[in-house]
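Usage

Read records sequentially. Each one opens with the input sequence:
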Amino acid sequence: MTKSQDPQQHELQHTLNRQQKIRREIDRILWFVLPILALILSTIFANWNIFSTIGTAFVLTIAFIAVGIKKKSLAATLALTLLYCLIDNYFSYKYQFNITGLRRQLLSMFLFIAIIGLARPMAERAMLKQK
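and closes with the structure output:
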């Protein structure tokens, strides 16, 4: 190992440690914020019955944690959300589909899940530049 590589490796190690610290800080914040946000939004997105509200809160919390903290696939999470919305709509409107309710719930949930999934890397970059 030459002397020119040693400072470069030290700098790289320092940068990686800083990046990991920032990720842990963001994760800690999101563990509190995302479930609260999911509960608030579920009252807006649900199909006007208590089971829909509870189910929507549960699905939104899991989806927010999956894309915002665990960094799982956004497409897979949106596909599972679509499946939930179809099932919820079918049972909420007495075994028939209400396209207006489905569109409202589906588009709202898709929008917020996508925002959480796409904003996470931007937040990491912003905090890295800030410090």
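Summary fields computed downstream for this record:
- The radius of gyration is 20 Å.
- The chain has a mean pLDDT of 93.
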